[in-house]
Specification:
Layout: E1 8-12, H1 16-27, E2 31-35, H2 39-48, E3 50-51, E4 55-59, E5 64-67, H3 70-74, E6 79-82, H4 89-96, E7 105-108, H5 121-129, E8 133-138, H6 143-146, E9 152-157, H7 161-171, E10 176-181, H8 184-206, H9 211-231, H10 242-253, H11 258-267, H12 272-279, H13 285-300, H14 305-315, H15 320-328
């Protein structure tokens, strides 16, 4: 699929997903700028034409311009892709606010809920930028696979249908398909909450449990995500879609999943501080989101036993085997109540 019109696009954040999207858009023949918060990494990408820190093994074409200065990166951009992890999005928006133009389309890639405020990324954008042209792009899409052209399907959501169609036109190609949605709340929440259950899936793997356990976790995780997500304003149908079930499948089972990796190490008995230290600058969004989701569930009085136990393992150092026992010995319930 060839785009007839070239657009000037800036990607804010040189992490794995931001880099993969920059590569995708460059392949679609758009004019690309990539900004990163770490000048040394931008210099390294420029030197080796490879993001060795976050997305090794993939060549960066010379068409992608690299910037340490955000102002230069976003100058003249029609579309700005927000690719910072959710817990760093506030800092990115604080810097971007001075350069934002109301006519720009903002495409958010972050999958999380800010712990400090319990705000979704669209709410953070409104807080710092006022009314803006916002689209969230989410779904089962590991950066490692998208950057190598593995066929992928995701969903773009906005309360403005024209923006969804524009993003589909600009981002889609023969290897990257985008479905549309009018439910940005549900799509944001699906992308955020599935990371918590991916940690739980990793814990199951780390404990050496079997397929039965993973299937139970996956199924009840979808139920829990749907229950909490709907209470927070999402359309229940979104959680059965690409940003819900689709992303759950990828994140719970893939070798590329950072959240599943964190869970696996927790399941082996390691402490979260040691795991984070070993991962360095690589972010597993579900760690912070487990706290955010737990607080939101308490606020909305929604029962979320899986989220509760993941949060307890991470933040209260609860033994994973005790967490499993507590889950399995709860009072019997009907499946769909």
């Amino acid at each position: 699929m060839n785009n007839k019109t070239k657009h000037r696009i800036a990607v804010l954040s040189d992490g794995a997903w931001g880099s993969a999207i920059a590569l995708l858009l460059a392949k679609n023949s758009h004019e690309l700028s990539l900004w990163g918060p770490f000048p040394d990494n931008i210099c390294e990408i420029r030197k080796f034409r490879e993001n060795r820190r976050f997305l090794s093994g993939v060549e960066f074409p010379p068409e992608i311009r690299l910037f340490e200065d955000m102002r230069e990166a976003v100058e003249g951009a029609e579309i700005v892709v927000l690719a910072s992890p959710s817990q760093y999005m506030r800092k990115t928006l604080e810097a971007f606010r001075a350069y934002h133009r109301k006519e720009q389309i903002l495409v958010n890639l972050a999958k999380g809920i800010e712990t400090k405020s319990l705000l979704r990324m669209s709410e953070l954008c409104s807080l710092f930028l006022g009314e803006c042209r916002y689209v969230v792009l989410s779904g089962p899409s590991h950066a490692e696979e998208v950057s190598r052209g593995v066929p992928t399907a995701v969903v773009a959501a906005s309360d403005k249908s024209g923006l969804v169609k524009k993003v589909q036109e600009i981002f889609m190609n023969e290897r990257f398909r985008i479905y549309g949605s009018s439910d940005p709340i549900g799509v944001e929440l699906g992308g955020a909450l599935k990371n918590v259950f991916a940690i739980a899936a990793g814990i199951i793997d780390g404990m050496g449990l079997g397929d039965n356990s993973k299937a139970a976790l996956f199924t009840r995780g979808v139920a829990e995500m749907s229950r909490l997500g709907a209470k927070l304003g999402g359309d229940p149908r979104s959680f059965a879609g690409l940003s819900g079930v689709g992303d759950m499948i990828v994140t719970c089972y893939s070798k590329f999943s950072r959240n599943r990796h964190v869970g696996e190490e927790l399941g082996k008995g390691r402490k979260i501080e040691d795991i984070r230290k070993e991962m360095g600058l690589v972010v597993a969004e579900g760690v912070a989101t487990s706290e955010s989701a737990w607080r939101l569930a308490k606020r909305k009085r929604v029962e979320t036993p899986l989220i509760n136990e993941v949060r307890s393992i991470i933040y209260e150092e609860k033994n994973p085997r005790k967490a499993l026992l507590d889950l399995m010995t709860r009072k019997p319930k009907m499946e769909f109540k």
